[in-house]
Specification:
- There is one protein chain.
- By secondary structure, the protein is α/β, with parallel strands linked by helices.
- It folds into 2 domains: 2-172, 3-Layer(aba) Sandwich (Rossmann fold), CATH 3.40.50; 226-349, Up-down Bundle (Dehydroquinate synthase-like, alpha domain).
- It is built from 13 helices and 12 strands.
- It has helices at residues 24-31, 43-59, 78-90, 105-117, 131-137, 175-192, 194-199, 208-225, 240-249, 256-273, 279-291, 302-310, 338-349; strands at residues 2-7, 11-16, 36-42, 63-69, 98-103, 123-128, 142-147, 150-157, 162-165, 315-316, 319-327, 330-337.
- The strands form 3 sheets. Strands 1-2-9-6-5-3-4 form a 7-stranded mixed beta sheet, sandwiched between helices.
- α1 crosses α2 and α10 crosses α13.
- Bound molecules: glycine (GLY).
- Residues 136, 140, 142, 233, 236 line the site of glycine.
- Glycine (GLY) binds next to loops.
Amino acid sequence: MAKVRVEASKSYDIIISAGLLQSAGEHIKNTVGGTKAAIITDDIVDKLYARTLETTLIDAGYEVFKFVIPNGEGSKNTENFLAILDFLAENGFTRKDAAVALGGGVVGDLAGFTAASYMRGMRLVQVPTTLLAAVDSSVGGKTGIDLRAGKNLAGTFYQPDLVLCDYLTLSTLKEDVFRSGCAEVIKYGVISDTSLFESLREPIESRLEEIITRCVEIKRDIVAADEREGGLRQILNFGHTFGHAIELLSDYRTPHGEAVAIGMAMMARACARLAICGTSTAESIIDMIRHYGLPTETAFSVEDIYKAALSDKKMGGGVITLVVPIEIGRCELRKTSLEELWEFIELGLKT
Ligand code: GLY
């Protein structure tokens, strides 16, 4: 078992352990309290793990309710947000009761945003069941939903009270979903940790506790220094500006991790061509992405990606901040004009 303490506007523990789901109720009762718990999950995770969570919550003394959304990015919408708010109100939840997000990034973001809004903020527990949620979205307090114009356009920073990561739940992930999470793991290596990056040449399935712990430690340090993304936290968006554009252009058919993988590869190619990083750094990033069976190219045009990137919320006053690799383990933020953005995309797409 590993425990990582996050010190932010709210301080909380991330517990990473095999089989943790079975004792989740006790952890939640001791840390979060309350008398009611709302499990918010999707239809795939519901069949696999909701029963275990429900049992342990009942054993810990909770009255348990459950709200199930269809699996997939399409569920991170205003309709589900409002429906869960009504569900909480109709079942008499107070702000001292717990919303328990059981699932991947979509469930965590939607449940988190709903918990942040309900009575101006109720208790929130994240129980990630995908690699992506375990290493990234369940930690650090970003919550939100998508609007028609783009991803995560409505949201807030709202830290959970507890994160319980039972990595045995990752064993039932479809291979492509697991792979998608590997893109975020590679991201942590590139932005902050050479030895993590190098270690990724060896299979990670048998080292999940160590890998997840290292990733959330990196994220914890960044969030502690810049919780609301005034500066440093933007480094976590390496690969995400072009990644989000690709997700939007594909109507979210390209999974987040695959889109981020392409975004990281594009950025690596562009930076090597602009002499921001060495060719060997770019090659290492692209080779690692390929090593995990993730894509490095897209058929979308420069113009498509440019227009989609401009709708990104990180755009402001004709300037966009890109995360550029300098060497493995070190990235920098670079303010980029629209002309330069076009050039980055053009150079990033050229193979
Ligand atoms: N996923 C990036 C962040 O939490 O800042």
